[in-house]
Task: structure prediction
Amino acid sequence: MSSQIPNPKPGIMDITPYVGGKSTSTGTGRVAKLSSNETPLGTSPKAQAALDGIVAKLHLYPDGGSGALKEAIAEIHKVNPAQIICGNGSDEILSLIANAYAGPGDEVLFSVHGFLVYELAALANGATPVKAPEKNLTTDVDALLSLVTDKTKILFLANPNNPTGTYIPFSEVERLHAGLRGDILLVLDAAYAEYVEKSDYEAGASLVARSKNVIMTRTFSKIFGLSALRIGWGYGSDEVIDVLNRIRGPFNVNAVAQITAIEAVHDQDFVRKAVEHNRKWIPILTQRMRGMGLLIPDSVGNFILMDFSETGKSALDAEAFLSARGLILRNIASYGLPNCLRMSVGTDDDNRDVIDALTEFLGQ
Result:
């Protein structure tokens, strides 16, 4: 018997597998999971009701092109459905992009505290991840442009960024795009766009409409509360969408996800309620945490980043203290921020419990 084994492509064994937010705590009472930026409002009742009609059709393949879902998305966002691709979460679309446009000898560029999937997607395809420094935990356009080389193939931009919650105005996104060669694909990851209420922000659809080398990705996992169904979408030029459709799985979005997402995207009243809840709590959490001595960047997402550097306490100790009380926050050392935790906005009770627990922890 041969002792040889199949070897994976270069880069794959350099990957540290992605680990999501914890879902269990060391406490024994009520658990508040605030580690994954899920909406505290659950799922749209209309989306839940849509599940009733699919049970009798589970033996049928889903629509491989997600046609009805693309029409629904296009109706709400005023875009061309032919330029939309749907995926098993926006993560799949990000991975498809790297699979299609990056390989050995290529570089994939993103900010140093950008979403972890960018690095994983680059390495999985043998490409080299390149990380640009940030300015005050915010994307630095000049730093990104300074690192563009003849090997750069993709630039991933999370706007707003996870885990910092910061954003750059659309004028800066346009300046970034203007500084790129036409053969570099700019990926605008707008997973948290629905939460942003800044007048100078835009998710990126207008830039896609006038560019061949831009794609915007979105998700149903956050404000729509469909994390378990894994569904996302992208809006890009005809040329880019054609490429991605050639390599995606033929039935990559299941029927339950499609039917539920159609109702979710139409339930804009539910979206507005989620935005209102977030609008209420982000300022309260930011003010209260800063009052405890924590460093908190201004967040436009549904989460805040808390830095313990100036408190004399560690994020690890805080995480353990909170976990013992059933409060699960996200440790983000893997993002290069070892003394920080990320907290998703929870229910009113969840948020008050975290404030009380941190007040106790930092007062010890």
Summary: The first strand starts at residue 32 and ends at 33. The domain at 46-266 is CATH 3.40.640.10 (Aspartate Aminotransferase; domain 2).
